[in-house]
Amino acid sequence: MPKLSVIVPFYNVRPYVPDALRSLRANARDDFEFILVDDCSTDGTADLLARAERELPGAVLVGHEKNGGLATARNTGMDRARGEYLTFLDGDDWLAPGHYAKLVNAIEELGCDFVRTDHVQCTARARVVHRVPHGRRNVVLDPRDAILPAHRTTSVDYAYAWAGIYHRRLVERGVLHFTDGLRTAEDRPWIWKLHREAESFAVTGLLGVFYRRGVSSSLTQIGDARQLDFIRAFDQVIEETARDADAAALLPKAVRTYCAIISHHLGTIERFEPPVARQLKAMSTAALRRMPQDVLEDALGSMDAERAGRLRRLRRRATSVPEVAA
Fold first, then answer.
1. What secondary structure does DSSP assign to 245-256, as a single string?
2. Distance of CA 213 to CAs 87, 285, 325, Å?
3. What's the pLDDT tens digit per position in 163-196?
4. Alpha carbon 194 to its chain's center
5. CA distance 222 to 218
6. If 0-12 CB within 10 Å is exposed, 13-18 middle and 19+ buried, where does residue 220 land?
7. Does pLDDT of 219 surpass 60?
8. Distance (Å, whole) CA 86 – CA 177
9. Other Cβ atoms within 10 Å of 235 Cβ, number
10. If pLDDT is split at 50, 70 and 90, which confidence band does 323 have?
11. What is the pTM of this model?
């Protein structure tokens, strides 16, 4: 059994593939494997990955016959992974040399289900360190205790799968897989499930992942209908949290976060194509109606006037546009 499996999905990111592969080589070890998942790229990415399978120690190339999205590609990689521990990297990001050895050492010393790490966000030439929003470091804790309070940014809001390392037992217990087919916000149901169902976690200050923002092929830069998958993602968060034994305590956080994301998208609605903007309004209206109304009212009351007002207007909105299935 390899010590670590690194799952790296790629889709049409050819300009960035060399950086990712060089950084993987600088992290290679005899007991590490790199699962390179080509999600049906059409820009030459697949050719670079085919060469990497021959030249990068520990590389295993897996190809999709049709594009499935990031969540599905990560699941494909997990299904092939054999490591005692697993982690993720996106194909347009890169790593500091030796980062994975330090990450494995951290989780083995702490002995918990998963460890979360800080990261460096890279936009053009700018570099900004982003910290896990959790104050206690290098202490093993119950991840459920890191979900609340509802009105503050917490560990479940730090939804980056590649900012951490995970024990294989989470895969075997069905906790680590993503919702197939989600095109955006795929990390949100995943991070909530991880915090509800894993038994132990810790946060460490390792800085080794460099997260590239502003990539033109990223869905965060594209205002098409795939962006609307955040509705399906957060519906799943609400539905699963509502079934939890601690639903009364946890739902206010889930609903408030959902409302904040809806308000964010409405506040930047001009970046969407007109038909998608109309669909966004219709789907968001329907989503507000599906939420537990007493919890929703409390959430709106705790938000600033601008965001709450935007959502209250949407909540009252009479529309002839039929609800689109989320």
1. TTHHHHHHHHHH
2. 20, 30, 30
3. 999 999 999 999 999 999 999 999 999 999 999 9
4. 11
5. 7
6. exposed
7. no
8. 11
9. 18
10. very low
11. 0.92
